[in-house]
Amino acid sequence: MKALVKKEPGFGNLEIVEVEEPQVGRDQVKILVKYAGICGSDIHTYEGHYKVKTPVTLGHEFSGEVVEVGEDVTEFKPGDRVTSETTFDICGECRYCQTGDYNLCSSRKGLGTQQDGGFTLYLLARKESVHRLPDHVGYEAAALTEPLACCHHAVRQASIHEGDVVVVLGPGPIGLLTAQVAKDTGAKVIITGLNHDQVRLDKAKELEIDHAVNTQQEDLKQLVEGLTAGYGADVVFECTGAVPAAKMGLDLLRKQGQFIQVGIYATAEIPFDLEKVIQKEITVKGSRSQKPRDWEPSLALMNEHRVHAKALVTHRFDITQWAEAYQAIKDGEAIKVLLTPVD
């Protein structure tokens, strides 16, 4: 079968390779991939900024159909519509594994990074990571369960009360999903972008996010202060991984506000205004990936039409069309791109 494989570190080195069809293990589920989403981390990996074990088939956002189960698997059967967490292996012994915080296990191996992922026809998932799709969640929406779970996890990192003013910096897929989850808590949500983000800001309006602001054309701080009697935003989610956005977010927050870092920066060390953190007593928290307890609530949000994930899908390509998919993302034409396998 064909797979889109990152063969070596560095820029590029992503090729269509003929690989063997995987054989299911005792406690594993074999999944026929229907759709696999391109994540920002896949872009970073392609560009050489994000390290993975090579060679490896990329793709950790996917949906599919169960075609075979291991002899110790009774929870699933062929024909089940499913998605899967990215966790493929953990130590099971550290304090983080004991509390279900698998995203923090130092020995964790993930699909699409250390274990072959979804940019192919078939993949293997451990049975504990597989989730059956609800009736009203189709395969395209289900391929976005993983990023939605990341956003659900990010919103849970903050304490949001009904009526709070929440600013989401960055209208990419993660920002648009975070904005929807935050709005579902009862917050008043502002999402921001730049001139080249107009397609995404228009999508935010279509999704009925309260305010979609082009910060190159509108005064964001004036809007925030007007909505908060001059105090500032209660919560900021930084979803861009851009230094100017982090600086903006700290400036927009009220005293004792909450700053949640979601986006990944191209370099680990960035200038950060700790003076504002100190003087305004801002709480700063990171949000890494997702946890098992984020998945069922995320599926429920889609099933109950409280989050519209499929609405973010703008482009579909097969795995042999990586170059076209990559360019659509880099040009700002695409919001979310899904890949399909080839036989």
Summarize it.
The chain has eleven helices and 18 strands. By secondary structure, it is α/β, with parallel strands linked by helices.
Chain-wise SSE layout:
Blueprint: E1 2-6, E2 14-18, E3 28-37, H1 40-46, E4 56-57, E5 61-69, E6 81-84, E7 87-89, H2 95-98, E8 109-110, E9 122-126, E10 130-132, H3 139-142, H4 145-156, E11 165-169, H5 173-184, E12 188-193, H6 198-206, E13 211-214, H7 220-227, E14 233-238, H8 243-252, E15 253-261, H9 274-279, E16 283-286, H10 295-303, E17 313-318, H11 322-330, E18 336-340
Parallel strand pairs: 11-12, 11-14, 12-13, 14-15, 15-16, 17-18
Antiparallel strand pairs: 1-2, 1-4, 3-5, 3-9, 3-18, 5-6, 6-10, 7-8
Distance between the termini: 6 Å
Order of helices and strands: EEEHEEEEHEEEHHEHEHEHEHEHEHEHE
Oligomeric grouping of the chains: single chain
Can you summarize the main beta sheet? 7 strands, mixed
User: Which segments are poorly predicted (pLDDT under 50) over 5 or more consecutive residues?
Assistant: none
**Class from helix and strand fractions:** alpha/beta
Mean pLDDT: 97
Q: How many whole angstroms does the radius of gyration measure?
A: 20 Å
The portion of residues forming beta strands comes to: 25-35%
Number of H- or I-type helical stretches: 11
How many DSSP-defined strands? 18
Task: Estimate the global geometry from the Cα principal axes.
Answer: globular
> Level of helix content?
25-40%
Domain Enoyl reductase (ER): 10-339
Keywords: Metal-binding, Oxidoreductase, Zinc
InterPro entries: ADH-like_C, ADH-like_N, ADH_Zn_CS, ER, GroES-like_sf, NAD(P)-bd_dom_sf, Zn_alcohol_dh
Protein name: Zinc-binding dehydrogenase
